[in-house]
Amino acid sequence: MKNICATIFFLFFVFLVSAQESNFGNWLIHIGSKKINTKFNLHHEIQYRNYNAIGDLEQLLIRTGIGYNLSENNNNLLFGYGYIASENYFLGGDKMRVNEHRIFQQFITKQNSGRFFWGHRYRFEQRFIEENYKMRLRYFINLRVPINKNALDPGAFFISGYNEIFMDVNKETAFDRNRLYGGLGYQLNKGLKIEVGYMNQFLSTFNRDQFNVFLFSKF
Q1: Residue 158 burial (CB count, 10 A)
Q2: Mean per-residue pLDDT for 138-147?
Q3: Mean residue pLDDT across the chain
Q4: How distant is the alpha carbon of residue 162 from its chain centre?
Q5: Rounded Cα gap, residues 79 and 100, in angstroms
Q6: Region 138-155 average pLDDT
Q7: Cβ burial, residue 211 (10 Å; 0-12/13-18/19+)
Q8: How many other CB atoms sit within 10 Å of the CB of residue 22?
Q9: What is residue 184's predicted lDDT score, i.e. its pLDDT?
Q10: Does this model's pTM top 0.70?
Q11: Over 90: is that where the pLDDT of 181 sits?
């Protein structure tokens, strides 16, 4: 376990050093779920997004919500709220702080086939950005494949990948962005796992590379 953590820390350190002279961004993410009872769960999430490695804040995202299980493990409806503080660059290199309050509704469904674990998330967002109001649809599909042990077994390594497309309801051209990700994870125990990976974010006029570090908790 110590060797695994040391390896992940080393890879992250190498990334930090190499990223100092590039626009390769970094996201530090914690996503958690707390079981209230057999039907309800509390979602909590925080994301610290940087333009480079660490220290040049792009966005701080805090999200929470109450979920309802339609079935024991595979189908979940959730109603939530998010606060997003963005620091956007403008011409001349100046930054401007933009605050967003977001309400969202989502449905998650999961399936597995042998060693392949699939997840689908459908999300509808109502976004209050300063004086503006926008709506957005998102579809997220992910795949997780254990490598050396069964899923959720402590000590299991797994490969993870996802694609998420964003559609802006308010625009004539609906496409907003697309995120494509691939990574490697490690199951610490039944309720805790870590993951590191690469994401490319395609926007309408350009794309950006990200190095993502995840901590998932479920209790």
Answers
A1: 22
A2: 96
A3: 88
A4: 10
A5: 17
A6: 92
A7: buried
A8: 10
A9: 96
A10: yes
A11: yes
What pLDDT does 32 receive? Answer: 97
What tokens does 113 get? 């086939």
Three-class SS of the chain:
CHHHHHHHHHHHHHHHHHHCCCCCEEEEEEEEEEECCCCEEEEEEEEEEECCCCCCEEEEEEEEEEEEECCCCCEEEEEEEEEEEEEEECCCCCEEEEEEEEEEEEEEEEEEECCEEEEEEEEEEEEEECCEEEEEEEEEEEEEEECCCCCCCCCCEEEEEEEEEEEECCCCCCEEEEEEEEEEEEEEECCEEEEEEEEEEEECCCEEEEEEEEEEEEC
Reported as a pLDDT band with limits 50, 70 and 90, residue 69 is very high
| Tokens read off for 28 | 């530090």
* Domains in the chain with CATH codes: 2-218 (2.40.160)
pLDDT at residue 149 in the model: 87
Whole-number pLDDT of residue 146: 94
Q: How many CA atoms lie within 13 A of 205 on its CB side?
A: 0
**How far is the C-alpha of 90 from the C-alpha of 32, rounded, in Å?**
34
